[in-house]
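Quarterly update from the structural biology core.
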Amino acid sequence: MRFTVNAAVTGTGGALPISIIWRWTPKKRGMPSWAKKNVQPCLCSFTKGGSQSEDSMIEWIQDVLLPYLDAEGRGPEEWALLILNPATAHRAEAVLDILKELRIAVAIMPSSTTWKFQMIDVVVAKPFKDALCDKWAD
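Predicted structure, tokenized:
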């Protein structure tokens, strides 16, 4: 079993909705019965490896990040800043192009700095994933 949890916080300390990327391929037993997007308490994506892909990153931008920026009332000339780790999907040209078009500047953290700069991964996502794995196993 493989999955990724996207947990993001705003510069003011607010939390964006959690999104989970589950591993799924058509060769497996089919899409899980609970996988209906509109029924989930969070955004669920499905990728071949259970990791962030270009498509799931673009889906997150459209379904999670943009609604937050719209709700904040960002002006037509204002830019937002998105700080990301150096995952391949985060650096994909299609993702960076969409972000630029949406007036979202990107800062990519140096490799191997999660423990220092991504406290949400260390303090929230890791314990959440561990507990979810335990629950799943039970």
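The first helix runs from residue 54 to 71.
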